[in-house]
């Protein structure tokens, strides 16, 4: 396949090239994208979040015309051109092991933790049947599920989807941290899209992504089915969270519920992006 050029963006004062390439810029010259197509980009160019998605889904090869200063063409090979939020990182153990929690049933210090108790927060132990502990377990399971499917996606050659699913697994850890530390959860961001942009893309995929709504059949790709299962799992956990934190004014629980609502939408966004890349 011959090299496919994208149009050069207007130059800034001083002769420097504009640094942002949009999805429209890439589509303008590709016309009909094909997996693995080579795209020449201006030296030092960067990708918008939507352009990064487009490159990842079609596995496009970016060539910055041989610029020695930036052999990647300004594009993160993982497809994540946008800055990642602070919570989008590898897992770490969040509990303060030096704390001396109290029993919520009797109020006394717990020197030796019985197996039937666990930490509600850094100050208190509760029975493992406590509603927040049940929610925590469901969130932990959802995060593990997302990370496992991320590995499946990468193994199947869908690196962009794998990276997105790993981000969603990291967001589960953010929700866990917020619930444990009793603080508002950070908003979900996926490849530079905030919660409202995720919602817009999933409600109007034709207008925002150029792809129709995804409907699966028994012949659909296995990765699509696994991501869809993550979506339904997120909806189930959201229902559990709504039972634990029923008030929309709860100081931190409301943000956990909202985050789970957006997380299920983000799973569907991953499905749409896979479909846009030709994986029905």
UniProtKB/TrEMBL annotation:
Any Pfam family matching the protein: Cob_adeno_trans
Residue numbers spanned by region Disordered: 65-90
Molecular function (Gene Ontology), one example: ATP binding
Protein name as it appears in the record: Cobalamin adenosyltransferase-like domain-containing protein
Every Cobalamin adenosyltransferase-like domain range: 114-271
Keyword Ubl conjugation on entry: no
Keywords annotated in UniProt: ATP-binding, Nucleotide-binding, Transferase
Highest taxon of the lineage: Bacteria
Species this protein is from: Xylanimonas allomyrinae
